Amino acid sequence: MSTDFKPAQFVQTMVDVGEAKTKTSTRDLLLRGTMAGIILSLAVVVAITTIVQTGMGVVGALVFPVGFVILSVMGYDLVTGVFGLAPLAKFENRPGITWNRIFRCWGLVGLGNLIGSLLVAYLVAVSLTGNFSLELNAVAKKFIAVSTARSLGFENMGMDGWITCFVRGIFCNLMVCLGVIGNMTARTVAGRVAMMWFPIFIFFALVFEHTVVNMFLFPLGMILGADFGIATWLNFNLIPTILGNIVGGLVMTCIPLYLTHAKTAPSLDAEDEAEVAVNAEPALSK
After folding, report:
1. Residue 235, C-beta contacts closer than 8 angstroms, at least 6 positions apart
2. pLDDT digits over 85-135, tens only?
3. How far apart are alpha carbons 206 and 210 in whole angstroms?
4. How far is Cα 161 from Cα 3, in angstroms, rounded to an integer?
5. What DSSP letter does each residue of 141-202 carry, written as one string?
6. Neighbours of 259 (CB within 10 A)
7. Which ranges of the chain have pLDDT less than 70?
8. What is the pLDDT of residue 136?
């Protein structure tokens, strides 16, 4: 038996998963979203710590996917994943799927992600500062530098900064949704891990903007004393990131896969056969 699924098979799984998530209860969407936010936030801490320790960003990118793999195997949800998957059930006209239910799914998973991220941000700040009694160490200073550069730095660029963040959000969720789908492409855990790891490594290594990562990174920066406020974070990072993630995950990843593998156009041979059949009809009627 093959150890992997063909595209036509895992695209049907994508639609099934999108339908299931859209119909999931409020409690479970919040719980799964919260746990996903907690796990992904801790993965960010691991990645930033290794970057500080080694001085190499690529090392952080290599270890960061461990959080994504864990939360995916546990069945927890990131809003970036449901941005792409949930609408597929509507496109397939699955019973009971409406845009209101899709937006509800997005909102509840996103709220859960935010709750988990904020909780970990506060606790990590306590851990890094000895309950706010110690001087900031190198890891804490790195969090401040990174969050400032990608919020206040974008604000100082004006509209150019907003567009830059939006584009990075597009590329980010193109990769992240490929990671989500990668979890559906293999029958073995090892195969699924590999297919998740590679695209998540790419997004982190190229410093693209991820909604849930940023729900953790920027509040932590502010708690540690970074020189920017909530309005700057929202207007010049989180909002363009969310919009970019929707475009990247849905328009650039899930819809193309759905169209070409679930709604495949007729092949050239099929078109030729149809044309022959049409031409044969007049001859048969004589």
Report:
1. 155, 162
2. 999 999 999 999 999 999 999 999 999 999 999 999 999 999 999 999 999
3. 12
4. 44
5. HHHHHHHHHTTHHHHHHTHHHHHHHHHHHHHHHHHHHHHHHHTTSBSSHHHHHHHHHHHHHH
6. 13
7. 1-3, 270-286
8. 97
Residue whose structure tokens are 């049907």: 12
Rounded to the nearest 10 degrees, what angle do helices 26-54 and 99-129 cross at?
A: 40
Please say whether the beta carbons of 218 and 151 come within 8 A: yes
User: What's the rounded Cα separation, in Å, for the pair 5 and 183?
Assistant: 11
Query: Do 129 and 140 touch, CB atoms closer than 8 A?
Result: yes
Q: What tokens were used for 31?
A: 């719980």
What is the number of alpha carbons within 13 Å of residue 63 lying toward its C-beta? 17
Residue 224 has what DSSP assignment?
T
pTM here? 0.92
| Cβ-contact 233, 218 below 8 angstroms | yes
Q: Which residues on adjacent β-strands are paired with residue 222?
A: none
Q: Which residues of 73-92 are buried (b: 16+ CB within 10 A; e: fewer)?
A: eeebbbbbbbbbbbbbbbbb
CB 78 within 8 A of CB 172: no
Token pair 């949704």 is at which residue? 177
